[in-house]
Amino acid sequence: MNWAFRLKQLFIGICNSGTENLEPRRRRPVQYINALSFLTSTLVFSLGAVFFFLVNSLLILIPLMLEGFGMLGVIAFNSKKRYNMANFTMFAIHYVAAGYWTTLLGNAIPIEVVVAFLLIFLTCGSFLVYTEKKVRIYSIIAIVLLLAFIQVNAYFKFIVPIPLSTNAAFIMRLCTTGGMLVFILFVMFAFVKEIELLLGSLKKSNKTLAAHAAFLRETFHELKTPLNSIYGIAQLMQMNLKEPGSNKVTDEQEQEVTNLLAASRLSKDIIDNVLDMKRIEAGKFYDIKKDNIHIRQCIEQCITLNKYIAQMRGISIQFDYKLPGDCISCDEILFKKILNNLISNAVKFAVSPSTVEVTAWAHNSEMYCSVKNLGEIESDKMKSLFEVFASERNTLVEGTGVGLYLVKQLVELLGGQIDVYCKDGATTFSFNMPIEYSTDMPQQVPSSLPNQLPSFDGKKVLVIDDNLMNQQILVRFLQKLGITTQVCRNGKEALVLAVELKPDIIISDMHMPVMDGKEFLVHAKTTPAIAQIPVVIISGDAFNNYNVNEATTLMSLGACAYLGKPLSFSELFTVISTHLPEKLPTC
């Protein structure tokens, strides 16, 4: 027992020779080479003794000694940390030995076994050790040349094998076949082990990514709740400034409100970009969902979203529309994400004061959009602009460095390309995508609230939200529209109140205790007394914001709209205008 333990420790020590301070990924190939070299030298010396006993010839003895001690030299190279030399020596010895013994022994080595040995052992072995594509190609070429030489020599007998008796040839055939099978099994075992290790690492990485994603989902959900309140308060303050008869405000106060709206908008963009990045890492990016959209209006909405930051920096945005039509078939969500990121970048990094120019035009069957701002990008940074986490710095506003990376992914997803160039002190980003015109004009949606808000006197809205601050902000907005409101904290309370009050619209948060928004929606649509009341779902889910699948699911369950946090009052106003019994004219 003690003897077996010592042999095991000796073998482990040989395998680990030269692996000190190596990371696991680099340590394993060295261990494989050491183990294979020790195994080869053992087989060479043991089987070589049998061969020399059967055929007393120096043509067998000298090559056996060279091969055996050469393999021990491989271990010595690794112990001196000369890993490349060790790898080359090991494969070179096997390569030369395969050609020499096959030629020398003739029929004593089955040609089929030699072919299997070369294809599996040498090819797979080199792939296991070498990662460089060029080295792998050279290995394959060398093996193919050796196979060709063996086959040609076997047919034409350029080199005549040594004479062997029938018994000697039979014994050698058994020994060589067994030895080569041992080598083949060793490489196959090593490959299986590598695959298991890689699968284990992948599983571990997936668990880490899942935990990271869960953490981000919860963290950003928590972030969006206070951000929703901040954005809502900022919108209310802006509405108060526009109200007739409101107290006179200074330019400084008006600028502070603009800055607050800009900061809220920028915070939302940063969160959305980070979440989109995580969607890419998780392999769950957007599916294209085309619909008829008003393309001019989409571009104007993107410009409006960035006007707060633009005003804060003294930047104006100019729009030049040159498309022959206004309605196209396109994925509106993806298009807006692309253009919004480009306009946002242009506004953030433009020289102040200046003008950002947004242009849309068509050529052949392609639609082109460009965003131009004053200010050049350094030439050494141009190549890495579309790489993840590549970002310029701005003293007033900053980003995450993932915006342009996402833009490139989205443009390519829509079948287009994006380009950037600098000329005459200005930088222009332009992208193209296939265009499909449509004759079915969708309903135009206002990109901002009208200066003069209409009144919905006599209308009732039930607000369901467990967050008291969100309740108060939403109620204040609805009251400005003349709407009577009633609030409750969960879906279970809402079912009772809805039957009692018969509201004109129900606005529900997605996540609440006792009964969430989705469960409430299902119960509401199966309760005859309130089944026809429009239900608006507002969600702050991190990975579900703009999630077409979840929105589709909720709409199929009966929701009239699905809005994300932070909530835009202009979007909510559009929904209210559309679904209240008395329709309002488009503003």
TrEMBL record:
Modified residues (4-aspartylphosphate): 509
Enzyme class: transferase
Presence of keyword DNA-binding: no
GO-annotated molecular function: histidine phosphotransfer kinase activity; phosphorelay sensor kinase activity
Residue stretches in coiled coil: none
Keywords (A to Z) from UniProt: Kinase, Membrane, Phosphoprotein, Transferase, Transmembrane, Transmembrane helix
A cellular component annotation (GO) from this entry: plasma membrane
Name this protein carries in UniProt: histidine kinase
Enzyme Commission number(s): 2.7.13.3
Gene3D superfamilies: 1.10.287.130, 3.40.50.2300, Histidine kinase-like ATPase, C-terminal domain
PANTHER family (UniProt xref): OSMOSENSING HISTIDINE PROTEIN KINASE SLN1, TWO-COMPONENT HISTIDINE PROTEIN KINASE
Response regulatory domain boundaries: 460-580
Occurrences of domain Histidine kinase (ranges): 218-437
Catalytic activity: ATP + protein L-histidine = ADP + protein N-phospho-L-histidine
Residue ranges crossing the lipid bilayer per the database entry: 32-54, 60-78, 85-102, 108-130, 137-156, 168-192
